[in-house]
Design a protein that fits this description.
This protein is α/β, with parallel strands linked by helices and 311 residues long. Helices cover 26% and strands 26% of the residues.
Length: 311
Amino acid sequence: MSTLVIAEHDHQTLRAATRSAISAAAKLGEEIEVLVAGYEVTEIAQQTARLAGVKRVRVVDDARYTHPLAENFAPLILSIAQDYNAIIAAATSFGKNLLPRVAALLNQDMVSEVTNILDASTYVRPLYAGNLNATLVNDSAIKILTIRPTAFEAALEGEPEASIENLAAVAASDLSRWVSNDIHLSERPDLSTARVVVSGGRSLGSAERFQQLLTPLANKLNAAIGATRAAVDAGIAPNDYQVGQTGTVIAPDLYIAVGVSGATQHIAGIKDSRIIVAINHDPDAQIFQWADYGLVADLFESLTELEQALH
């Protein structure tokens, strides 16, 4: 028996989060197989086959998997689930949407947001927005896990290259359909894997000011741009900028929080950052309790001064 990792990709590149899921799967001590489903995904399958620890890549190349609809992917996973002791995906929006459906259809327990794997049945996951860690034992016949990508190193390329097996598609579901895709294109580093992230809160006031203040600093630092949930809800920043428990969980080398109050769900998404710098006009802001460096100052003046000081 083996562990199955569900690959996440953009039809050109395997997501870094899947590489972390492969590293997590290695801690279960079983052979690792990866399911790559999509349309025209030969290159993705080859990328996956080169990763250390992967024994076999199972590929389903069909137009019905062009878009990652959980309602279509779940029946596919169910068709091969009995071949595995465990099924793992990264705790991204893709994995969080897909694996609970798979667990329900298999009538198996699921453990989400795993940050450590102690043995094949024992896992660690955060509770109360990361303020506590729980150690869980799962005796289900098929272990179903989502893992937090920031808690596991990304799998690197290794030898020998895994075998690639083609699988047939299963009947598509009519429960949902893909309507449109609204993607915010950027040349910046990906938020989930960036080494430096600059984030803004609702106190920046408007979408125009958000970009006007954060973009020059991010350019100087080659940083990704993030935002709080409040800023996203207020229309100040796009959805894919959201950092936190309900957005993207990150662990950059440097996190600069500008006008961020430090709500619990936001802290849960950034607390593993190596260095946190907070700039806020409110000296009592919660973010200062987590910051390695804090500056109580006017946001607009201090950001301009900081950007001009960088060479």
